[in-house]
Structure formats: C-alpha cells, structure tokens
Amino acid sequence: MARDKVIIKKHGKIADQIISLQEKFEKLSDEQLKEKTLEFRERLQNNETLNDLLVEAYATVREAAYRVLGLRAYKVQLIGGIILHEGDIAEMRTGEGKTLTGLFPAYLNALTGEGVHVVTVNEYLSKRDSEINGQVYNFLGLTVGLNGRDLTKDMKRDAYSQDITYTTNSELGFDYLRDNMVYSYSQKTQRKLNYAIIDEADSILIDEARTPLIISGGSQNRVNMYKAADALAKTLKEPADVEIDLESKQVYLTDEGIKKAQKFFSIDNLFDFKNTEVFHLIMNALKANFTFKAEIEYTVQDNEIILIDQFTGRTMPGRAYSDGLQQALQAKENVEIEEETSTLATITYQNFYRLYSKLAGMTGTAKTEEEEFIKIYNTRVIVCPTNKPIIRKDEPDLTFGTKHAKFKKLIVDIKEINEKGRPILIGTTSVESSEQVAHYLDKAGLKFEMINAKNHHREAEIVEKAGQFKAITLATNMAGRGTDIKLTEETRQLGGLYVIGIERNEARRIDNQLRGRAGRQGDPGDSKFYISMEDDLMVRFTAPKVRQMFLKLGDDHIESKMFTRAITNAQKKLEGLNFDQRKNVLDYDNILSQQREAIYAQRDDILLQPDLKVVLEKFQYTIAYELVDRSSELVRGEKTVRIKTLINQLNNVFVMEDSLIESDFDGLEKNEMAKLVQKKMMEFYIFKTKDVPENVITELERRTILQAFDKYWTRHINLAQKLRSGIYLQQYAQNNPLHQYVEESAKLFNKMKIDIAEETITNLNTSFFKQKEDVSVEFDPNESEKKVINITETDIDDILAEIGITKENFSRDSVNKRFAELNDEFKDDEQTLRKLSIQYEILKGLMDKLDSMFEDQQKITKELSQQELDKIVSKFGLSGKKFTPNDVKEAFERLSEGLDEQERTTLLMESQIVMAISLQLEKLLKEQSKSGEFVVTDEDGKVKKVFKTNKDGSISEDDIEDTEKVQTKTKIG
C-alpha cells in the first residue's frame, strides 16, 4: 500500500495540472475544442509522445464531457485515468464513476490511430457505455464502433476500424480466432491488438481465466458411451468407491472403484493407454455426479443444460463445458446428449489479452488478486482514493451451527430493518440458496424482488428500485454488477442501504463487491454476513469437531473477530488453490500458445505474400529431407540411404517421372541429397505449370497451403488436448507431467509441420501432373497434356455467387443458360471470356462428377451387406428413427461441418447411399402400403428384412424385424 500512496501522490500532481487548465479550456469555443484532436495528432507525427500530450488531452476530454454530458470529472477519476494509461489496474469503489474514468485513456491512446478496445462483460454494458461516451468522442472528432455477436463480418470489420471499439470479452476473443481461419486477408475483421481497457477486470481476467475460448467443428457421436459412464458413476458410493477432495473439488476412484469400473467396461487395466478414452469418460461422469450441483453450477431449462456464472449468478445461454464434461452433465440429468465436437481453434483469456501491446483495467475489487495480475499480465493493481470518505459500517460476521438457525435470525433482523424503512440487499451464492431465503421471506410475509439465473431479464428494472423505501432485493452473488443502487433522499436519511450476505464466497473480493453496493459516494450504509457451519465454505475448510461444537449452540450464534479471521484465512487458501488451477491452465496453454502464434504468423505471411514459391521451396526441402530419412536403413551401425527406394517414392508419390537417376546421388551427404531433390521438385513443378496463368496458380497455391495448415493445426489441437487429459498419470512414474507434455507436444508439432508440407506438395503435384478422382477443371482441353487443379466447395460457392445461380437452382440447364447469357454480354471482353470459360469447365466437371457419383451409388446401393447398411444408417443418426430424404440431407449438413475435403467426399458418398435407400423405401412403401409392410430380399429372392409401416405411411427402424441373420449381399427391393 505504501507503493500505491507514492503512485497516487505522483498522479495527483498531474491531475492538479489538468484541473488548473479548466478556466483556460472553458473559454474555448466548441470548434476550438474539437480542433484539439487534429493538433494532438500533428504533434504525435512531430515525435511528441502520448505522455507529452496527457495533461492537455485530459483537460480537453474533461471540458468536452462537461459540455456534452454535464459531468465534470473529479480528481480521483483523473488519477484513475492516468493509472489506466500506464497499463495498470485501477481499483475504484462502487459509484466512483468508472465509465467516465475510461473516457480519458481511451481518447488519448486513440490519437495514434492504432485503435482502442473497451471491453465489457456483456452486450448491455457495451451498448450503454458506447452510447454515453460515444457522444464525447464524436464531439471531439473520434469515431466509435460497437461490436456484437449478431453482426456480419463487414459490420464487425467496420466496428474494429473505428478509433475506439466497444465489445464484450468473449466476442473479442472469438473474432481473433475466426480471423485466423480466413482464406483471404481482406476477410479479417480485427486490426493489430494495440490497447485494451477492461471494465470489471477481475471478472474477465481472473474469473473467466479457467474457461478457454473454443471454436468447434466436426462432431463425434459417443452418446452410448456417455450414458454407460454415467450409469457406472451412479452405482459408485463414497467413500468405498470414490474419494472427494472438497478443497479442490476433485474426485478419485479408490482401488474398489477401479475394480468396479474395469468390470463394468470389461477391461483389464483402466490405466492402459488404449483405455484413455474410457478413463476420460469415467472421470467426467464422476465430476458431473459428485462435484457439480444443479442450480449452482448449472440449471436445466427446456430439456437443456444451461451454465450459471459462478460470480454473477447469471445464466450463460450458448456456453458449454468442453472436453466432454457438458455431455456428462446431460447424461446425469437425462436430457438430450449433444454430440461432442472437435476443436478447430482455441485460446485462453490469459494468452489472448497478453497479445495486446498495452493492457489496462478497472474494477471495484482486485487488490486481493494483485499477485496474479502481476505474474500473469504484468499489471499492477493501484487502489484509487474515493472522492468522498466511506462511512459504511461493516459489522462482524454472525456464525451459527445450522442453516435453519441462521435463517431464523436473518428473518428477525430483516423485519427489524424493514420496519425502519431502510432498503435491504440480500446477497446469495447460488440460485438454490436464493430460493431457500425466498421461502423464509415468503413465510414471514415480507415482500421482496429476486434476481437470479431464472429471472435475470428483469435485473435492470429491479436494481433501479432497490434503493427505495422498504425495498427488499434478493440477488444471486453480484447480479446487477455494473449498475449503481441509487438511494432516495428519504432512504439516505434513514441510514442508507443495508447489505446482507447469507454466506461467505470463495473469494474475498466477491464479498467486498457485495459490501460495496452500500456506501457509494459517501452515502451511509451497513453490511453484515450470516454464516453457518453447513455452508459449503465451512464444510470444506473446517474440521468436523469444530462443526460439531457449533451444533451445540442451537439457535444461538457467535460474533467473533477471531472466527472472522479464520474464515478469511480459509478464503485465502481457496484463492491460492484457484490461482494454482488457473496457473496450471496457463502453463499448459503457454506451450500451445507459442505454437499457435507461430502458425498464425505463418498463415498471415501466406495470406499477404504475392509469390509463394519461397514457401513451397521450404516445404519441398522439408519433404525431401524426410523422404531421404525414410529411405535410410541401418547397415553395420550406420544409416545408409537406399537410392532406389527414394527414387521410387519420388516417382510414385510426387509424380517426378524419372527426373532423377541413381548416379545423380553419388557422393552426396543426406542434406545435399535433400537439396538436390528439392531443386528437381521445383524445376519439375515450374515446368508443369508454365502455361497456367500466374494469378490462378498463386491463388491455388495459397488455398492449398491454407487448407493443409487448417487441417493439421486442428488435428494438432485435438491431439494436444488428448495428450494433456492423460498426462497427469506421468506423476505416478515419478515424471513431471508438464515437462513430459512439453516434450510430447513438441514432437506432435514437428510432425504437424511435416504433414502440412507433405500434404501441400502432394496435392499441388497431383493437381497438375495427373488426373485425380476429385472435382477438377481442364485449362485447355485441346492440349495433349492436360493440366488439372483441385477445386474446393468454397470455390464452387464463390463461382455460383458471382454468376448469380443459387445452390437450389443449380442444374445443367441453369448453368448452360446462364453462361450463354454471360458469353453474349461479354463477347468483346477477351479476359472475362477466358475467366468464364474456366468457371464453366469447373461447373461442368462438378456436374459430370455428380452424375458419375449418382450412377455409382445406384450400383452400390443394390449390393450392400446389412452390416454395412446398419453402420452407415447409424452414423447418420437415423437408427431407430423414421427417415426421409430430407432427414438424410439435414444429417449430411450437420455431420459435414468441420470436415476436410477428403472426409467430406467420403461422407457425401455415404449420404448418396442412404438417400438412395430412403427413396427406394418410399417407393416400395407406396406399392405395399395396403398390406402394411414390405420386404427386403437378397439376390435369390429370399426375405432378408420386413419393414412395418406406420399409420401415416412412414417407416420406423424400431419396427424392423430380422427374419434371418445372414451376412450375404443384400438387394434392396
């Protein structure tokens, strides 16, 4: 605190200088005040710094805010603004005007033109603050943007291009991840991450730190496995089968529990590497059943698991736990289990915000977490003085043996306070506890308003009235945070707001936030906590003997400063545990973060480089060296390269067509061989692509490289997650799990780089050097040697959009008609006609391919083993359901998300099989609807399956009867 006093004293002198300019700036006209912005920007260009401008810039904003909003910043707000400019956290009490404080550093840092992000916890606050402060910024000639979840890419790009952008923390992070998945630099929405001011910094940088941002893709259907793991968990008992560490909320299987799990899943060793997935499912089921409580961590609404923010009590629709935990909770509550998705991109808040050149924040409570802010974000927490002295009385805790005794006393005290007319705010830690208090209030005949996860939509309305005469407001944790509870003159005279906490929170700062609702801006107020030995914190951190002693109190209570200190020490211990957890998350993510930054930097280079031959050279050398290494064998203790094997690989895999012979490698070392192979690869590649337009080949190279990057980076992320989920078992072998993770992750990353290079070069070579089975375009059909390039689904979408044909209207007739119109329209434009010719060949190739695929699927469908049929139908989620062609289409769209080109092609072929079956079944159904059933026979006419029809004429897999279990080929119809 001594350090803070020195800093506050220094900043106070600067604030005095700003205030001393008030008279001078009051004399300026509106136009003269606005011109200050241009003056400051010119001075920056003339090598002055932001620090040089600070006093005048803050004086400008102070005067502008007074003219526009009618608010003139206090000295303490100016001090807070200086703290934020220096890249620190400003701790400012409730009601001290954080919104106005943020105006000053945002304006000053926006003068550079590099952008400022003001980050809030929800869209309501972003919109509110951008509208209020935006008036001042606009008055001074700066532009303001508002980012939101529902904006289009163009709208987001516009919002981020403004001088100052208001946004929520989650949307900011997701936009960063999405920007690093684009295929054109112009599709990016964000600029450089320059300077961020974070409102409620403790909530975003501390509370949210354990939850990484994740963009998910292709799904994995393991519904039955989740149900099985949940069924096992429900049979296990504590302490015989499981041990629960209440302090860390971890669950462990005992030896007996391990035996039961192995027997349940019919496996010999639960900890065998091949059983990693089963072990992971079991651990998630144990967490869901033994440590997660409904109405505390989550709630069930409309047959869906909705997460609850532990620190605000608000529900978080659209949020889900990752790594299978969400599915474990769904199995526990017997609601529909969503398919688990694979991770396409991920980042933790810690590593995201460390990407900013400068980071600052403001909050009412952060000093208790200063160690974490310094270690993780390199930001100090400076406590700002209040504008008026705090006169709120913080009374000692009342401690009871049971919750019932606590609530009895609580109601007596509330009645007494309410009779005096004072407004009361009751803070609870969960929806469950708020409903318990509500029950007692109802029973006592007391009128009250309640804010929790179930009625958060009325939050602003309730908070607005919470300071009125005889108002009783029941709020889960810090619901209403960001909005002041304003007293009337009458309630101020009666003693102000009385804040009651019905149990201590895990973190001291959450308790301090609750207390801070009273006593804003020198208002009177009181705060008191009611605690019982049955509260979660007490159960976790007090000895059973102590709890037994308190039970003897009956309805009495203890009011002891010593016991209050003991509770504070328990909170400190828990804060330490939570910090360790967040630090552990960060330690592992730091490894992935370094890899992520390397990949994203390379990705940006590829998006921006006009010529990608240098990139291809590096890839070719990587592959060449790998091929040389693969072609080596140990002979008398030394590795010898088998030249013939190497040449065969070059000819077969990379279509080099005997461009190298064995004698070319005589006397060369391994690295020299690799250089020779790379050189020949590039010569051959340039020769084969010499007639392709440069812009076409460059864009094809760019897209091919990016596709390989995204495919293998996604695979790497998921492999790293699986590696991490089981790495802690290394400690049983006396190994450091983090060190092992670093080593194994590095191996995976190096393998990924080789895979990216190999896939890129292979795809480019096969695209131009020999016909593949992929959709393709022939650049010149008249040439004896055809040059072919791979076309992706995105390319097709772009072409259709450009020529004005929707997917729904895509047919051979519509394409021929449209291109005839375009050829006529551009008959005098040779360049456009050439482009149209290429586009037509692409679409023609696609249509020919689709026709061919349909014919193939008709043949395949007629001969398909029942086992194969069942497997495909199950994959599409149609087993046990009525399925129509429309169901098949919807299933394909769902399953194809996040797949690469090869996986999508396989899925498309399977969908055609199921589609053909559904069409054939519909046809047969109409023919046999009178009998109420139809049959599937084999080639000999022998009945294989009988399908019963429903009253509405549909077919259900539930009604399929097996007439004979034979594994012969099956003929449909």
TrEMBL record:
GO MF annotation: an example: ATP binding
Catalysis: reaction(s): ATP + H2O + cellular proteinSide 1 = ADP + phosphate + cellular proteinSide 2
UniProt-annotated binding residues for ATP: Q77, G95, E96, G97, K98, T99, D484
GO biological processes: intracellular protein transmembrane transport; protein import; protein targeting; protein transport by the Sec complex
Record's function text: Part of the Sec protein translocase complex. Interacts with the SecYEG preprotein conducting channel. Has a central role in coupling the hydrolysis of ATP to the transfer of proteins into and across the cell membrane, serving as an ATP-driven molecular motor driving the stepwise translocation of polypeptide chains across the membrane.
PANTHER family reported for this sequence: CHLOROPLAST PROTEIN-TRANSPORTING ATPASE, SECA INNER MEMBRANE COMPONENT OF SEC PROTEIN SECRETION SYSTEM
CDD domains xrefs: DEXDc_SecA, SF2_C_secA
Gene from which the chain derives: secA
Residue ranges constituting the SecA family profile domain according to the UniProt record: 1-562
Cellular compartments per GO CC: cell envelope Sec protein transport complex; cytosol; plasma membrane
Localization of this protein: Cell membrane; Cytoplasm; Membrane
The protein's name in its UniProt record: Protein translocase subunit SecA
Species per Swiss-Prot/TrEMBL record: Spiroplasma apis B31
Annotated spans, Disordered: 953-973
HAMAP family given in the database record: SecA
Annotated family: Belongs to the SecA family.
Location, primary (coarse class): membrane
Occurrences of domain Helicase C-terminal (ranges): 406-575
InterPro entries: Helicase_ATP-bd (IPR014001), Helicase_C-like (IPR001650), P-loop_NTPase (IPR027417), SecA (IPR000185), SecA_DEAD (IPR011115), SecA_motor_DEAD (IPR014018), SecA_preprotein_X-link_dom (IPR011130), SecA_SF2_C (IPR044722)
